[in-house]
Amino acid sequence: MTILGFALFAARTRPPRGARGAAAIVLAALLAGCATTPVAQKDDFSADEADQVFVAGYESIAERFVDAVAIGNVAFEGLHGLSTLDPALDVAREGDKVDLTRGGTVEAEFQAPDDHDADAWAELTVKALDRARALSPKARAASMEDLYEAVFDQALPSLDEFSRYAGAEAARMHRASREGFGGVGFEFAAESDGTLRVTAILPDTPAAKGGLKVGDVIIHVNGIDVVSLGLPQITHLLRGHVNTEVDLTVLREGQSAPVKLAFERDLIVPPTVVSNRDGDVGYVRITGFNQRTTASVSRAVFDLKAGAPMRGLVLDLRNNPGGLLDQAIGVADLFLTDGEILSTRGRHPDSSQEYEASGEDILDGLPMVVLLNGESASAAEVVAAALQDRGRAILVGTVSYGKGTVQNVIHLPNDGELTLTWSRIYSPAGYAFHRLGLMPGVCTSTEDTPDAVIADLRSGRIDPAAALAGWRKAHSESRRSPAELRATCPPRHDMRKGDLAVARDLLDDRELFTKAMRGPYPAVATR
User: Model pTM?
Assistant: First the structure.
C-alpha cells in the first residue's frame, strides 16, 4: 500500500528487553561522579515500551533509508535532543564511550555499541533517557511522547529534510487526511466566544443528508458543551468508528430553540478535486492526492465530456503539495495509453519499481495543458513529469518545487509514525527532478501579460523544445547548479490568472498548441 507518496510498513514489535535471553546485549551505565543527587522518577516511564519504539525506529532507518547510514551516528544525534528537555543536559562521544553530561559535568558513561547495531543503540538510548530523568526534574516531568519527540526530532533531520516523526495524535490526523476517517462531513470555524460555526458541508456525507446547514452554530456534541474545549478534543468527539452515532445540538438562524440532529458516521475522505467548464475547455484542479483522487478526476473528466464537445483540458496542479504516490500514478495513467509513468530506485529491494500505463486515455487524445508553480510538489510533479515526458501535455507556469523522493511511513509500537525517505523518482525520460523541479514548456515567471507570452511563443522567442532540451542537457552534464537552472524560470508561489489565459489561448489555437508540444519526447497524436 502506498501512502503520501510513501509506502506503508508496520515496524516489527520486539519482546521486552528482558525477554531476549542471554544473547541480549547489556550496556552498563558507569557513574563518573555524584555531583548531582538523582531525583525520584515518575512511575509512568516504561523502559520496555521505549525500547520497543526505538528498536523499531532505528531498525527501520538502518534497513529502509535511501542511503546507507551508520545508525550509531543517527542515534547519537538524537541523544542531543535531551537538551530540549533540559538545556543543561547533553551528550559527548569520544572513541567507544558516550558521556551524558549535565551542566558540563559527566554524570554517566556508556559503552558505545557497533555503529550498525540498531538494537544496542536503542538500549543505550533508553538507558540515557532513564538516567537523564534521574538527574533532571525537567526531564523527569516529560511524558513518554516528549521523550520520543526529543530523540526523533533531533535524529531524523540528520538524514534529510523529508524524514520526520509524528506522535500518536499527529499520526492519527495524518492517516485521516490520507485514508479518510469516520465522521459527519462538514467544515467549521471557531467563533470568538468559543462556539463552532459550520462553514461548509461536504456533498454526499451524513452532514449533507442529515440536515446540517452552513451557518449553524454547534454548541453541544453528544451532550457535551464544546465552548470550553480545544480543537483536538472537539475533533475527537466528532470523529469515531464508521456506523457509530453522534448527536449535535445547533443554534440556527430563524429557530427560537436549539435544534438537535443525529448522524451516523461514515467514511469521510476530504475532497481534492474541483472542476468546471469554460465554454469548450474543461478545467480540473487537484489540491492534493488522497485515496479517492484518481476516481474523482476520472468522474470529473467524464462529467465534463458529457456536455458539448470539448476542445481540450486544463489540469491545474498549482499549490498542490503532493500526497499518495499510487494516486499520482493513477491520475497520470488516466491520460496515457502506454509506456512508462515513472520508476523509483532505492537501497531496499522493495523500493525499486517501474510503473507502466494501462492502455486507456479517458480524454481520447484531446489536448492538455498542465499548470505548475513553485508549490507543485511530489505527487503533483510525478503527474506533470509523466505527461510532459510522454508528450501528452504542455506544462505552463514556473519551475516546480523539486521533491523527487518517495517516503516510507512506518507505524511504531506507540501508534506514532516515522516517515523515511526510501527511494528517488525518475521520470520516463530518466530525469531525476529532486531539488531541481520540472521546467515548464511555457514559462510565465515574468511579469509579461498572457498576450505577450503567446506572442513570444508564436514568434519563436519562447521555444519550449529548446528550453526543455537545454535544461535537461545542463542538468545531465552538471554544467550548472540547481539554483542556476531554477533561476531560468524562477518559481512563483501564487496562482496567477494569466496562467489560465495562456492555457486557454494554447487550447484555442491547435497550430500553436502543436508547435508548443514539439519537444525532446515522443509525439502523442491529438484529435
Answer: 0.81
